[in-house]
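Bit of a strange request maybe. I'm writing a small parser for structure token strings and I need a real example to test against, not something I typed by hand. Could someone generate the tokens for this chain?
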Amino acid sequence: MREAATLATRRGGDVAARDRGLVWHPYAPLNGPVPYAVSGASGVRLSLTCPDGSTAEVVDAMASWWCAVHGYRHPTLDAAAHRQLDDFSHVMFGGLTHEPAVGLAERLVAMAPGPMAHVFFADSGSVSVEVALKLALQYQTATGSSERQRFLTIRGGYHGDTFAAMSVCDPVDGMHSAFPGVLASHVFAPRPPLARLEAHGDRDEWVTDEAELAQWSRDFRDLAAAHASELAAVVVEPVLQGAGGMRPYDPRCVRVMREVADEHGLLLIADEIATGFGRTGRLFACEWADVAPDVMCVGKALTGGYLSLAAVLMTSRVGAAITESDFGALLHGPTFMANPLACAVASASLDLLQDTWSGNVARVQSSLRTGLSPALDLASVRDVRVVGAVGVIQLDGPVDVPAVTAAAVRNGVWVRPFRDLVYTMPPYVCTDEDVATICAGMIAAVREVHG
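Reply from user aminoacidic:
Good idea to test on real output. This should exercise your parser:
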């Protein structure tokens, strides 16, 4: 009774104060900065209570870590969730199936680049990468190459926070040093040279230093050849490295990876968790390179930010190899695999995306280019770049995250900077005025804190 009374008293207090020291937040200490408390979310705006007790309404420039592409409280997604709740919210997927999962799987293989034929549902993006890596190892064993136990990837990548996913993240800027002796050792090629997506007339073109691109291609091919006998797959975020630095690179690099995979009998795994469903200006980033992967991971925007869901798509060749192997199955099975509620909302999200994503992303890209360009006049700014619905201000040193966050909130924008980057990946449904607010707020925050 005393515990219940204490909880009731705490619930009446300040949620941020109650949070502090009790709840872990991503990459933050328990005694870290006081979080902003969300009291409401609608459209592309969040209602916040700030650490100083003031309130603010801000445009969410982050789309809740890149997933709320339709904004908040979207009537179509709300209705899909309510309809599924009226039927059933969850059943196990072992030995059972249901329309939301099958219908969503049909949609995904139909819209994916290349001849995708099978879908494995997971409960988060990181777990989908774990599944894809397991799949590659099982594939190589099934096809007579059980010695192939390592992966080839590029520096600067980020694929999630679970152990196998961490092992293919950047070995320097990732979390390898925090878990010595536990993470598997894989093969890392140099980062591709930085590229720019620039408007040329009525179309966008990638601009890259050709000499650097040629050198990178030679280095990647040589590294793959040197380790080919031990490699199972190439793992990559196509065209845009996300949490590794919001760094775009030329689609021709992805073509090189496809050629290398084919030459040496490797699978090409495309991590489209952040880049999929239109974020880079193509429905899937692989399409910039006219490349079809063997395995593709999707998540984040899949449910429009409503529920956690991810999927691993694969070709019939990969599926057949697993089916005909000694195990006969892909050795993974999450409790919430193919959660019906998440699948129903995901199908509704894809309905919304189908007819609107291209025009919306092109419009957001144009507004970001216009709105962020004045940041180049600031002394602290090293670079500004835009790819699809991604806009980045790169500073000449580390961002003062709490100060820039607070300054952006005062200017009506929610951002979550990291390293030397103040960036936005906004909801696709942002109006031109919303994007202008985001850009102005980011620039004002950088100017105020870093000059």
